[in-house]
Structure to design on (696 residues):
């Protein structure tokens, strides 16, 4: 017979962003507990609100299965004397297992005989096992936890009640001085305390107490109410902000959507500032017109944690709060319009970037130098170069504006708006707005060349300079988000399709930067660490970016260990190998090429290939084929064309090995053949270290 078990932890209101990962953590803990206890179940359903983390286990077994194990005891030579009598060790072992010497059997383990007895453990009932679930609660961890009263324990918020029911019966246990029971709490204002009579009625009973415990159901309720409201008003449905929708879902137990308005004068404030004021500070959804213009409208949509009772009062209160916030945004923005860009840039001299790396003004100057180097690699037009030079001189200026100090999320965006208002060119403003992109491993990339180069220069400066002062990320410790910066560098270069050596770029940067001797030395000493750090991000991106589910490990290793550091070519080579790995001739091609690698290391670097020492046509044919392949490599950076050239070379390599003994008795002949293999290896390693590949 299967059962239903309910566990609910009732708490003070939790931070919205903590709730979903916390209930998932609870589920994982409980799953592990049940599996270790060998207590089977069919499914686990999750529930969560700001005041509760809960789960319902359905199809829970009534009892553990009986367990029969063969338990190993002492070796036979210890368990019996010469006459075959049982020793004290054997008798004590059997008693300890609840058996007798009559139950002993012998088994050989690694050539030695041991005594064994069969141990039978009767399965416990679920109601006896479930109190151990307390460890699933007490072992939970959170980004921030707290103590309460005089207790020493910590949790995300104080626990006020616990429900633990197996069907109709309470499963008794205690967590943090709170005893489990069958009483849950409804909505803080619209519900009341209620006693459950069966675990399965949990969701239904709570709905009667104005709590929608199912998170997805609560989110759907919000989505439907907002959609209906917008359709009625002719507004664009503002649900593209998934982060806001999720946060609002976790802020309420019983959602009621409403809308309010604000003074049209505030529409003079940049839309970015309006959005941040509403979405980030007040958790409101901004409203736009449902047409091609999608212009901002003087309305907002909000979600109340409660019913429609006295909703007019709620609307007025929210309008008043938002008006104050928008008034601040308007005031700060108007004040910023009075200040020149040059004055803001001058203020950067007094704002520290890092105590060892100088001010934000110093960083801006370094970025300007790096940007000029990158401009040549990205083949910018004169107009784009001019825009890049100007943008790199001022791009951090908005960090000292009132608007960004108040609304930090607007950095870059406000800079772009103010720059354009003060007469800067469109390309300059766009680059300033794109300087922080991409902000994550999957977020959007800069859309302009100038923005891409500026963002790259900024991220390269951050990465190189922090490595120069020894701030290398270790483990999960990455206070300056250098992994994210490096991933952004990789993604932008890959997306650009621009081919260049990362090491050459680093050398140019090191030479061009006007920094003190100590920092200069740090940049030089840590260059290889920076390059490897970026390669690690390439490896990570290869696992994320391919539609087939990621580039296989062996191919990633092969291209990352190649003797080249062109990011775009590295990705192209990986994709080429991955595309060809299942073709009929892949195995033969790679085997022929890796056979070269196995012998090439025996060659001397000083000895060059001499045509006069060729004894057979197969040697000459290989020599000519290698020259042709080298010619192809020198004229194309296309990874697919290079692979095809190597594929065409492989039969000639096979013929060479079939017709010649490489390690010939004649030293000159042997060295000449090895030198030819060495020349092939030099070619191969610029494509990939093929010895890393796994051939099926």
């Amino acid at each position: 017979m299967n059962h239903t078990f309910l566990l609910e932890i009732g708490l003070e209101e939790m931070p919205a962003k903590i709730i979903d990962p916390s209930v998932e953590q609870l589920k994982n803990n409980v799953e592990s507990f049940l599996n270790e206890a060998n207590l089977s179940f069919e499914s686990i359903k999750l529930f969560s609100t700001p005041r509760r983390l809960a789960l319902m286990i359905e199809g829970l077994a009534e009892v553990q299965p009986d367990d029969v194990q063969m338990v190993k005891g002492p070796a036979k030579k210890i368990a019996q004397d010469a006459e075959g009598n049982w020793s004290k060790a054997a008798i004590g072992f059997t008693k300890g297992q609840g058996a007798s010497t009559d139950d002993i059997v012998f088994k050989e383990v690694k050539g030695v005989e041991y005594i064994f007895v069969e141990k039978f453990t009767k399965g416990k009932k679920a109601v006896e096992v479930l109190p151990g679930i307390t460890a699933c609660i007490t072992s939970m961890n959170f980004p921030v936890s707290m103590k309460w009263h005089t207790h020493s324990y910590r949790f995300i918020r104080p626990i006020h009640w616990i429900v633990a029911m197996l069907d109709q019966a309470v499963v008794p246990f205690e967590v943090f001085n709170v005893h489990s029971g069958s009483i849950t709490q409804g909505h803080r204002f619209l519900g009341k305390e209620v006693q459950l009579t069966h675990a399965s009625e949990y969701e239904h009973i709570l709905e009667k107490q104005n709590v929608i415990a199912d998170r997805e159901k609560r989110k759907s309720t919000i989505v439907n109410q907002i959609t209906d409201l917008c359709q009625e008003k002719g507004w664009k449905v503002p649900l593209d902000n998934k982060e806001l929708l999720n946060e609002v879902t976790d802020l309420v137990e019983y959602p009621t959507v409403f809308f309010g308005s604000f003074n049209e004068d505030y529409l003079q404030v940049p839309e970015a500032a309006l959005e941040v004021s509403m979405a980030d500070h007040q958790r409101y959804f901004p409203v736009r017109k449902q047409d091609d213009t999608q212009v901002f409208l003087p309305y907002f949509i909000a979600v109340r944690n409660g019913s429609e009772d006295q909703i007019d009062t709620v609307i007025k209160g929210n309008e008043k709060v938002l008006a104050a916030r928008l008034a601040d945004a308007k005031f700060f923005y108007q004040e910023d319009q009075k200040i020149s860009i040059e004055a803001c840039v001058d203020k950067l001299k007094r704002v520290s970037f890092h105590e060892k790396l100088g001010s934000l003004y110093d960083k801006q100057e370094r970025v300007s130098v790096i940007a000029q180097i990158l401009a040549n690699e990205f083949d910018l037009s004169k107009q784009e170069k001019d825009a890049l030079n100007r943008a790199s001189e001022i791009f951090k200026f908005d960090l000292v504006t009132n608007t960004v100090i108040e609304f930090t999320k607007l950095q870059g965006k406000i800079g772009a708006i103010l720059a354009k208002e003060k007469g800067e060119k469109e390309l300059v403003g766009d680059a300033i707005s794109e300087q922080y992109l991409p902000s994550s491993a999957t977020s959007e990339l800069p859309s302009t060349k100038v923005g891409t180069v500026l963002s790259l220069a900024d991220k390269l400066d951050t990465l190189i300079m922090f490595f120069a002062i020894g701030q290398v990320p270790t483990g999960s410790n990455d206070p300056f988000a250098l992994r994210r910066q490096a991933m952004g560098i990789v993604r932008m270069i890959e997306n650009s399709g621009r081919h260049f050596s990362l090491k050459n770029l680093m050398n140019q940067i090191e030479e061009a930067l006007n920094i003190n001797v100590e920092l200069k030395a740090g940049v030089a000493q840590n260059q290889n660490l920076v390059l490897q750090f970026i390669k690690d991000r390439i490896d990570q991106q290869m696992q994320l970016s391919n539609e087939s589910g990621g580039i296989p490990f062996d191919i990633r290793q092969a291209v990352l260990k190649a003797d080249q550091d062109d990011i775009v070519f590295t990705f192209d080579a990986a994709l080429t190998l991955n595309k060809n790995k299942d073709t009929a001739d892949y195995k033969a091609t790679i085997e022929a090429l890796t056979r070269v690698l196995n012998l090439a290391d025996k060659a001397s670097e000083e000895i060059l290939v001499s045509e006069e020492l060729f004894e057979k046509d197969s040697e000459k044919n290989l020599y000519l084929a290698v020259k042709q392949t080298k010619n192809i490599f020198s004229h194309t950076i296309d990874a697919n064309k290079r692979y095809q050239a190597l594929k065409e070379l492989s039969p000639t390599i096979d013929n060479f090995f079939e017709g010649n003994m490489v390690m010939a008795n004649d030293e000159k002949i042997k060295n000449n053949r090895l030198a030819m293999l060495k020349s092939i290896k030099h070619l191969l390693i610029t494509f990939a270290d093929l010895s890393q590949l796994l051939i099926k």
Notes: The first helix runs from residue 16 to 36.
